[in-house]
Amino acid sequence: MRKLIPMAGTVLATLVLGACGREAAPTPAGRPPLGGTPVAVTDTLIADAYEAAGTAEPIRVATLSTKLMGTVTAVSVHEGDQVAIGQLLVRLDARDLDAKRAQVEAGLAEASAVRQDATVQVGRIRALYADSAATKAQLDQAETGLARADAAVANARGMAAELAATASYAEVRAPFAGIVTRRFVDPGSFAAPGAPLVTVEDASTLRVTVSVAPDAVRGLRRGTAVTATIGDTAIRATVEGVVPSGANLYTVNALVPNAHGRFLSGSAAALALPRGTRRAILVPAGAIVRQGDLTGVRTATAGQASVRWVKLGRTVGGAVEVLSGLAPGDTVLVAGGGR
Is pTM, for the whole model, over 0.85? Predict the structure, then answer.
């Protein structure tokens, strides 16, 4: 999707081109001639790409909540804070769980004592049975008692594990390193199961997502290198996946490294999806002249310097594509000299 020139600029450029055609605009009287190094314009083979607009979002976003219902006793972070994985973010009042923990620990201790007694009893009965001093029924009864004691201990341990898991929800911790982007509660707030408490995002890698027609994704595979533009900056991106999204469209996701926070999540972005090669006219950036919404190039014709208004395309390796207004063989003047 090519960038559009504002309407006022388009109309004005059309009028100028319509009036002058390919004639060079003379340098106004009294203004010194434009200087620069002459460079011949050539027809160049460049990589073609389809530009699709989208957004750059963080690779991971988590809005954290709890399974408990209780009062928030502490919130240890603010919006914009950097957090490490496992760092405590929010703590809830868990005094009722402390009381239950004491009950569960007492139950586990009792079950363990009963099991110890049953183990000793079984040992005695087995010895007596071996000497024919105890019946098979007595041995079976003792072993049944031991099995019940083992089950009681296992049940008590299960209750202790369940309580420990429940108690863990009283402390909300960061699932990954990132930045706190939203704080929903303060100390004294009431937390309900599933209600949001804090949002953390990891923007060390950004995901650029665009939607395009099927023809734009032919040959595009996971791992393909493409160019992403975030704001005014072009950067290398890697295709994460290409999936159909319905209505004769495909969604393309590409990952952009952002370890130092160079780009802001939520920024407008674009992907240049490769689609072969094409011929183009490129000029050095130093030949470009801008006047309001108009764009032109410094040209040299019959030894005279002038400005010719042109329509520009994208930047390719430090040069700028000219879509109309120049032809191979024309000469442009590059400020500062060279390409």
Answer: no
